[in-house]
Amino acid sequence: MRIATWNINSVTARLPKLLEWLESAKPDVVCLQELKCAADAFPYEEVRALGYETEAHGTGRWNGVAILSRVGLADVLRGLPDQPGYLADGALLPEQEPRAIAATCGPVRVWSVYVPNGREVDHPHYRYKLDWLETLRQGIAADAAGERPFAVLGDFNVAPTDEDVFDVAAFEGQTHVTEPERQALADLRAAGLADVLPRPLKYDRPYTYWDYRQLAFPKNRGMRIDLVYGNAPFTAAVSDAYVDREARKGKGTSDHAPVVVDLNL
Fold first, then answer.
1. Residue 226 is a catalytic residue
2. CATH number of the domain at 2-263, please?
3. Of 28, 155, 164, 226, which residue is the catalytic one?
4. I need a surface site. Which of 1, 14, 49, 133 has the fewest CB within 10 A?
5. pLDDT per residue over 39-87, tens digit each?
């Protein structure tokens, strides 16, 4: 069974790339993030033609998540239980952004998540990010401790260690590398999950994101922020894991690459 996660950075803009990749990589399950489209605007028919059912959660703005599966899609849950909200204009009533969706795909239960960016350390969005990660920890605890293979996949917007960025000094004082963010990931793993480390074919550091600017991708000035966290039954079944750098090459690509995990189940 092949499971992947990919921040697609607009499913509408990247649809040709997505369809091409689905045909070549042949994943059984794909977790997508940053759809940037409403759920009813997702290209369901195009991916259905390749054999995939889809469940999407999006409002047409900057977020949005989906799960594509050709091994079944059941028990779908949109949004985290008690998910915190965020409104930039300071409104009193919080708004729950479409950042999480869960489903059971064959023998595996998965969450596709798009963790808030955090913006700046002294910005309210940073506190929102930490609160969101804590809510995720609480929401996945039961599945993480269960006997069914289970994984949380997605864009976590946190580099777990200094080795997961091309130059930690370049990120000093910025989000994605702070101790509270990394501690939030550690707390998530402590709930019963482990990081499924990619094993790249060429590069020592398996980054998953490269800025579009300043030749970041050709220079491999990247970050590993797209992660797969699996429980013990999931990680025990892993036979291979890698970052598909080929999908990041060329024009019109996402600024993220897919992370692919093969399982023997």
1. no
2. 3.60.10.10
3. 155
4. 49
5. 999 999 999 999 999 999 999 878 999 999 999 999 999 999 999 988 6
